[in-house]
Every structure is written in structure tokens, then in C-alpha cells.
Amino acid sequence: MNSVVVNQLAPSGVLRAGINMSNFLLVTDKAANGDPIGVSPDIAHELAAILGVDAKLISYPGPGELADGVVEDAWDIGNIAAEAERAKTIQFSIPYCEIQATFLLPAGSAIQTISEVDSPGNRIVVKQRSAYDLWLTENIKHATLLRTDSVDASFELFVSEKLEVLAGLRPKLIEQQAQLEHSRLFDESFTAVQQSIGCSHGKADAVVFLNEQIGKWIDTGFIQSLIDKHGVSGKLSVASKPY
Question: Phi and psi at residue 65, in whole multiples of 5°?
Fold first, then answer.
């Protein structure tokens, strides 16, 4: 193992991995000691093993808090969705998996196409600082965005205030659709949230290594094996290699 890469990713001799606990597809359970269990934690453990160091998992309630941790040097790698705004402070590997984000409409909605969502008078509720919130912030020009602290809170507001649109990850929206008779879910997606490994800027050798390693994991089926292991097949998709 290249010592430069080890020093860049685990300078203390331990790989500190930031884990987003709000991503229910990548973190599917907790161990008795409170450590997260799922695809994302397994990625961190596997990477630490390759580097020849121990892994320390650091849990964050959401992706925004995890992203903030890079400024405080609170973690060495952050397993988080790659997004342009976050890339200002975090450099990302190529994605290893992705999740579709789309819209749920209430019963009787006049909206027929996904392009009609961004229209004056439409209110879109979304979990704040999620990757799809950041995408909507950049791309929604006419509709109004309402933000909540959690995915569950966004659904509750959508129902209680009779809002026009709920934005979210497709697997969760499928569950929520089942609770609302005659609600509609778009087959199309407005974006795909790509899950990557992030680190602080200035670690060029580490990013090259991460990209190569993720490419190998995709080719060998390791990522798919983790998706199958944790019971999220059909909800998470292995990312396509960009080269």
C-alpha cells in the first residue's frame, strides 16, 4: 500500500469515517454498541482493511452535519452524496451507487408531467440539506421550496398542509405513497443521488486511489454483493463507471 495514500486518508493510523445515519438505504441497522450497519459502514471497513488500519465510524444525523465536519477535520473520509455545493469543501471519488429522487403528488393533482412541477403556485416540500434539496435549490425557478428537518417531517407537512409536491428518494416515496390513497408517483426522476467517498481537498493521491478502488469494487461485484447482503436490492443501484 502506498504510504502517501495511507498518510492522506488515515494520518492518525485510524480511518475515521463519517456515516450519514439518515440514509436508510445505506445504513439499515445498528449494532449492539450503536455502530451503524449497512452498505456505507461496510465500505468504510473494507477501505480501512485495504489501508491496513482500523476503522472508526462517526455517526451524523444527516448529510449536512456530515459535510460540516470536513471544516473541523472531524473525519478522514465522509460517505456522502456527491453534490456541486459540497464539492467546494469536499473532493469526491467516483460514485459507487446511486438512488433515484422523484416527486409524489396528492390525489387529484392537476400536475401531469415532471416538468410541470416547477410552476408558480406549486409548493415542494423536501428534507433540508439533502442532496436532492441542493439539486432543487439550484434548479427550481418558479415553484416554492419548503424545507423540513427530516424525511418523516416532510411527509407530515405534505399531508397536513395539503401541499402540491413531496420530493424524496424513490424507495421512501413508494412507502409513503402506500399511505395516501390515489396519490401518484412519477416514473421519471428529477435527479439521481450518487453516493461517493469524500475527503478534504489537497489529497490528490488519495482520490486517485479511491477512484481505482471503487472501479475495482464495481467490476468485481463487491458493491452489488453489499447491496444484496443488506437487503436493499432494487432500491440501490450500482453506479456506472465514468470511464
Answer: -65, -40
Q: Are 195 and 99 in contact (CB under 8 A)?
A: yes
Pairing outcome for strands 90-92 and 191-200: antiparallel
Least Cα distance to 58 among 48, 66, 68 occurs for 66
List, for residues 147-182, the tens digit of each pLDDT value.
999 999 999 999 999 999 999 999 999 999 999 999
20 by DSSP, 3-state: which?
strand
Which domains can be identified in the chain, with CATH numbers?
3-97+195-238 (3.40.190.10), 99-191 (3.40.190.10)
Q: CA-CA distance, 25 to 28, in Å (whole number)? A: 6
Give 229's contacts (C-beta < 8 A, 6+ positions apart): 42
Distance CA 81, CA 9 (A): 18
Cα separation, 151 vs 24, whole angstroms: 10
pLDDT in tens, 179-227: 999 999 999 999 988 999 999 999 999 999 999 999 999 999 999 999 9
| Helices 204-220 + 222-229 axis angle, to 10 | 70
Give 234: exposed, middle or buried? Use CB within 10 Å, 0-12, 13-18, 19+: exposed
Q: Helix-strand-coil percent breakdown of the chain, rounded to 5?
A: 35, 25, 40
